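All the exercises in this workshop are built on plain-text protein records. A learned vocabulary of local backbone shapes supplies the integers on the structure line. Once this layout is familiar, the rest of the handout is easier to follow. An example says more than a description, so a record of this kind follows:
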Amino acid sequence: MNLFEHTNEQQIRKEAPLADRMRPRTIDEFVGQGHILAPGRLLRRAIQADQLSSLIFYGPPGTGKTTLARIIANTTKAEFLSINAVLSGIADIRKCIETAKIVRSEQQRRAVLFVDEVHRFNKAQQDALLPHVENGTVILIGATTENPYFEVNKALVSRSRIFQLQSLNTDEVEEIIEQALSDSERGFGSKKVVIEVNARHHLAHVSGGDARAALNALELAVLTSEADSEGVLNITLEVAEESIQQRAVLYDKDGDAHFDTISAFIKSMRGSDPDAALFWMAKMIEAGEDPRFIFRRMLIFAGEDVGMADPYALGVVTSASQAFDYVGLPEGRYHLAQACLYLSTAPKSNSAFAFFDAISVVRKEQADEVPDSLKDANRDGKAFGHGEGYLYPHAYRDHWVAQQYLPDVLQGRIFYQPSDQGYEASIQENVARHREAQLAAFLSETSAEQSGNSNYWEARTVGNSGELLSEIRDHLTEWSKLSRNTLALVINAGDCLLLGNFLRHIAEETVYALVDSKQEKQTLSGLFAKSSSGIKPNIVQNSSANPEAFEIDNLRFERIVGRNVLQKHAEKTVFLEKLKQWILPKGFFVFGETVPALGQRLSGLISDELLQPDFRKLLEDAEEGIYNDAENPRSNWTPATLRTELESANWNITRWQIKEFRTPTLIRSAQIEQWFETPENSPHSSYGQRLSANLSSEELIYLRNIFRNEVAGKVVEWRSVSLFMELCNKTVHEA
């Protein structure tokens, strides 16, 4: 190089853009990319040891891809060759390969070929380069802003180590700006440049992690500013805005403005104000906020504030976030806007907070273990009965069946309350109906243990499946002919079956419920504590079940409805007479009574071939004797005898229906044992004991074993008969 060439090169370097002059010359001068260049990292060790394999640097503009290649050129002892894929073709590739071969053969040195914008090479050009990379003629260093797994020949990618460079953060860009202002050789250190803090922040924010953009804007600001009387160049915020052609937005990503703005954004979406939400999001984007942070907050919002009111919201935001990652800015702003508008205009529900209520229960309250029917039956089902009694929902109508899922001590506990918004409004009633039928079935099975004085084996044979209870509930509701303002009383409401349906048909303040115990009152209060209107149903406790023992605000009702109300009373018409004081002149009673005398006989569960005809006849006669027991008010009546009794007491029977139900029912081993054993402290006899008057002990053992071996664990068609009646005071209606 002669004197003129050297002078010319020095002049070119002096007049080069600031971003080019300030390129780091060593790894120690390099700012950012600590995930690949920090001390001890693989790439740093390879550069320092001059032991490189083929590399591809992938990342956004201004992150240091070309600079890293130049650092390698300054560090390595290998011959460094450089081409730009935009300006070069196959001929240039061949020329570089020939140079590499000469260097290897004559100087025994390796050759490093740097290809900037390597994704711009077409397939033929990349194929021309491939064999020379593969045989080690050149070590390839490629730089690309596009994903190499999509844009670069797979064979080249497989032979190279990919290093992804990330956008610089604000602090790193500010550090680069300070280097340029303090470097007197390559930067503006020889000038008296004073930059305001907010001006430096603005350049760093708006550059979006691109050091080149920040340095270009700084250079423009310095070169176009006039020095004051003391020769100082003051770079103000206004100058910085003009230099980078973007107005500064009051926003500090680590301070109050950041948290206040994202709070305003979230609250605007929660308040269903799309205009305000778009404004606050636009402010964040213009201020340089990371769009992925905004997407993360919208993903949280989709679950926390929209939730089940629109289950698709989460999918919309997730898809928008993935689309943004694919296309980036500026086009990705469409996906930000779409997600923001969807969430702002979607129905809102925070019902997902139910999960935190469940967590609180798990942490603070004692809960039973998993019910046996829900335990895994694959490992120890035979030994411990795990899994026995589980009802497979798909085997039932509507793919649902009532059964116990919560531990005993948590039965009736409500966590999830569907809102009346969007999708949840469409499932609200179904969730409630299933919940009530399930709880009613559970309470029917456990009422004997809870009450302590009504442990009739018959109560376990009247049929309490969720499907049956749902049908009975719908039947009683239909017969009640409810309007929104009907004043109604639900008797025997502690079974949880009817009250919810009445609340869905009638305003809460006109529904009253009568329960027998404090525990039943607590259960109902918890079940219906969060009605949509905020008004709780009126629940009255009367442990004596005596209508004369209390008052209900001196009210008279248009409907008095109940299930299995009369069964509790030996003198049924006497009890009805006491209820007359609560009925309006034009009101009427609707009752649904299970009729054990006409229902399923346990002998009917055993196939004919398993019992001798004489023994079957003996068993059936013994069962009929049980139902003819005059001392048992639950089963000592039939629809015919009850109707005669009512007519004799001057009741007007306006509607009367005997309805048979057949529902799939699983017979559990525990049920069979209860049929044949008398619980402790029970004043009532078991089924087996009642049969002992007609059967010998050997016959009872034989019968019990048949039930155990042939019936336990099977689903049977359970026959249940219910009597539905509509009654009114005959004398009142005739008047």
